[in-house]
Amino acid sequence: MSKRGPSLRELATRLPSHRAPTSRAPALEAARAALAAHHPGAVGAFVAGSAIDGTATEHSDLDIVVIYEALPNAYQHSLRFQGWPVDFVVQDPDTLGFFFERERQIGVPTLPTMVAEGTPLGDPPILAELQDGARAILAAGPAPLPDALRDQARYQITALRDDLRDPRPASERAAIAVALHEPLVTLYLRSRGRWAALGKRVPRALQAADPGFAERFSAGFAEAVAGDPAAWIAVCDEVLAGVGGPLSDGYRTNAPRQWRM
User: Fold this and answer.
1) Which of 30, 49, 156, 229 is 20 to 30 Å apart from 178, CA to CA?
2) pLDDT for residue 207 is more than 50
3) Please, are residues 246 and 240 in contact by the beta-carbon 8 Å criterion?
4) Where on the phi/psi map is residue 168: left (φ > 0), alpha (ψ -120 to 50), or beta?
5) Total-model pTM
6) What are phi and psi of 31, to 5 degrees?
7) What whole-number distance in Å separates Cα of residue 43 and Cα of residue 6?
8) Tell me, what's the pLDDT at 2?
């Protein structure tokens, strides 16, 4: 039998109180201490994000997926600890499985990525099993994009693209350009069977899918926000062409019957 390591509470007493956000070791030490202080009953955790992957900034936080043997429900809470903003995502294996499947259907793998790429805190077998499962989900890709959601995105992008063509104040053009960003990213990636992305992960996801498109997307968006929408409109047309073209005439959606007072 291997020698038992120090407990979470024992680890917490050994750690410095200063913050060094771009250094991997202090971030992991702070994460271990935060876990010991706030979730001593957990079986382990995964620390994810820029705080441990070498890309941290002064404003980076600690993202920690906490694993319990069993919980009444999953939950999330945030706090500050030793100078770090800390986001705890608290799960057990069953609730984590639920969210893995939910995000597979949605197409944005936030939790699978955190677990697959995270650094384990602790070494019970369940952590390795969960990490292997998360990696398998990422490798398999998202669920197919439903036709209804594809057509909804086509309709939304078509309407916003047409709004962008009209003369209007610069502030309105910028707002329309921003409104197009997420549906364009999601439709482009999901229609190709790839995981969608949000926020700062978007450039990396597009680059991985097609470097040429990623460059056109980035440049078109920047130009549109600055006042020239021509290249952004061309990006809209390119994305729409890959999914059947623009959609407006004949489009219909039905509200559920129970949506009434």
Assistant:
1) 49
2) yes
3) yes
4) beta
5) 0.84
6) -65, -45
7) 14
8) 39
